[in-house]
Every structure is written in structure tokens, then in C-alpha cells.
Amino acid sequence: EVLKDELMANIRATKGDPTFGEADVLIASIHGNFKRFAGSVPTDAQCGAPEYAGISPSCATALGVAFSGDRYERFLRAFPEGQYFPQANPASPDSNLTGWICTGDFRPALSAIGEFFSSASGGCITRDIFPCEDSSACPAFPFTSQAGTCVDRPNSDSQYCDSAVQVRAIASNTAGLDNLRSSGYCIDESIGTVGLASGCVVDSSKFSFEQCSGGVSGIRLAWANENEARNALLGSNIELRYNSLSSN
Length: 248
Description:
Mean pLDDT: 81
Low-confidence stretches: none
Helix content: 10-25%
Largest sheet: 3 strands, antiparallel
Shape: elongated
Number of helices: 6
Oligomer: single chain
């Protein structure tokens, strides 16, 4: 926790942005599996001796010997779930993380880290969304009378209200706004409302949400018809907005 606070303070100072928060950070590590030292604490001299039997490796592969990655794991877990890699097992979130270095091949680890960052930066919502236990807690979809539904959050044992996630299309120019109006993708009542003078809320029948890749706990936007959406929303920026607070 102390190391995390020091890192965040350093980043804020470097960026000159005091509002930069831990939710803006993604952390990934390749380290030895959890195997904390048990017994009396060795002296500095003993720690430097390879033959010291009190500190045993976490694993040994053709790539070398790795010791316990418990300090790496504690640093990762200082950040919110979904913002660090390796991910905890959704079925057993309190179990130790797999450090990957003990696999003997870094390629799967590097590939998984690439998917993790790609998911987090590619329309993947990893933070909490309006939590619920049943659909009665969910508000109606904005600009429609359609009731919200409490649905399962992928790779997690929690649920969220689907009506708490909104997809917006924002036109970059007048021609783009005209294209949006005739695209069939907009909820007509949303065009021209506060904050949407040059855009609209996209009709929920045009998209769905699927699980993020790489085992990340979160949801990712998926168009019902990718090619149609690309043409219909040409010249627009897509925004995902969501409410992370429950009615409680």
C-alpha cells in the first residue's frame, strides 16, 4: 500500500495532474508464484549465500530460478480488481495469483498481458457498474420506457444493471450529425438534449456487451452488425458511459 501511494504521488507530480487516480492505472507483472519465507528472518549475509537452506525457490525452469513473488502480489492487489494482471481466479478470489514466471515460457504471459491492456483500452469496462441483486433495483433505459435487467458480470460473482451502461455517438462535424440523424442508430428523443447537441444515445438493440478477453472481469462493447455500425457511425466518436453507484 505504501509503495502504491508513492507511485501515485510520483505519477501525479510527473504529469502535473493532482486528480490522476488509481483508477487510471493498469499494472502487470511476471513474477514467481507466492511462496513466502517461513521461519526466522535471515541475516543479510545469509540472504546473499546461495546455499542458505531457509530460502527455497518458488520454482526452477530452463529460464532460471524464481523466488516467491508475494511482494509483487501484495503490490498488485493494492489496486482495484480488474486493474492488475495476473487476475485473481473469479471462483476463488482470495487464492494466490499465478505469477507466470514459473511456466518456463514467457510467450503465453506476454500474450496474456497484451490482451489485458488491449481489453482495458478497447472499450472494456473493468470498474464496478450499478450493482444489483435483482432487476427491481434497475432503472429504466434513458429516453425509453424499457425496463433494466440485472445481469451477470463476466468473470465475476457479481451482477450489474444493463440499463446503467449507455453508448453515445458524438459527431465531429455537421455532416456527421446529419448522418447520425438518418442512421437508424440513434434514439430520436436523445438528439439535441443536454450534453448531446452534436450526438445521441445509441439504440440498445444495435449492440450488446460480451466478456473482456484475457480473463478480465468486465464487459466489452460488441456491435450487432460490425460493418453496418461502422458505416452508420462514420465520422462519430463512440463513448461508453456508466453509473457505478447503486440505488443504495
